[in-house]
Amino acid sequence: MSRVAIFASGSGSNFQALVDAVEAGRLDAQLSLLVCDQPSARVARRANDHHVPCFAFSAKDYESKEAFEQEILKKLQESEIDWIILAGYMRLIGPTLLAAYGGRIVNIHPSLLPSFPGKDAVGQAIEAGVKVTGVTIHYVDAGMDTGPIIAQEAVAVSEDDTRESLQKKIQLVEHRLYVDTVKSLLHSEVKS
Ligand code: GRF
């Protein structure tokens, strides 16, 4: 069974969707590690509740990105991790982790990339007045939300949508699409 590490910084609703799928037998994976750069984030409590080991760190305790990524790499290797799943990890992945796990790191983003990369993709979509936005799951490269696309699903924007209501619709799609996509990636072991 593939061993997976989830990287997250925030609330962790996607983390929860993946944990729920594993616990319900809908996803055949070992969620072996949460890597979290915000020790007080809700996702760290979720990991604790579901007995997923957590490596929580503060970037300010390290002298460089390379230094904390070396530490993360050590944890990944100790846990024999096969895949890295980013779920709201608010940092670019650096050369240390890309060299070790390139082609086995995926991310989820709340827009139809290449539209609205970076922060607040939902707010960007509202601001732009688009009628359709969505969700993208992609391999991670050195850029900001630029790697090869694996899966996408559209979400309609209604006239009366606010940032909050649109975010809710998008997250519902995210939770289903991430579980399904991770499942097929682990099954096929396809690399980018
Ligand atoms: C998601 O919308 C994801 O697309 C983005 O960060 C958000 C994380 O949300 N990369 P959550 O912490 O999983 O609720």
Automatic annotation (TrEMBL):
The keyword Membrane does not apply. It catalyses: N(1)-(5-phospho-beta-D-ribosyl)glycinamide + (6R)-10-formyltetrahydrofolate = N(2)-formyl-N(1)-(5-phospho-beta-D-ribosyl)glycinamide + (6S)-5,6,7,8-tetrahydrofolate + H(+). Gene3D superfamilies: Formyl transferase, N-terminal domain. It comes from the Bacteria. Its EC number is 2.1.2.2. GO terms for molecular function: phosphoribosylglycinamide formyltransferase activity. Residues 3-182 form the Formyl transferase N-terminal domain. The record marks 145 as: Raises pKa of active site His. Keywords: Purine biosynthesis, Transferase. The active site is at 109 (proton donor). N(1)-(5-phospho-beta-D-ribosyl)glycinamide binds at residues 12-14. (6R)-10-formyltetrahydrofolate binds at residues 65, 90-93, 107. Pathway: Purine metabolism; IMP biosynthesis via de novo pathway; N(2)-formyl-N(1)-(5-phospho-D-ribosyl)glycinamide from N(1)-(5-phospho-D-ribosyl)glycinamide (10-formyl THF route): step 1/1. Catalyzes the transfer of a formyl group from 10-formyltetrahydrofolate to 5-phospho-ribosyl-glycinamide (GAR), producing 5-phospho-ribosyl-N-formylglycinamide (FGAR) and tetrahydrofolate. Belongs to the GART family. This is Phosphoribosylglycinamide formyltransferase. It comes from Bacillus yunxiaonensis. The lineage of its organism: Bacteria, Bacillati, Bacillota, Bacilli, Bacillales.
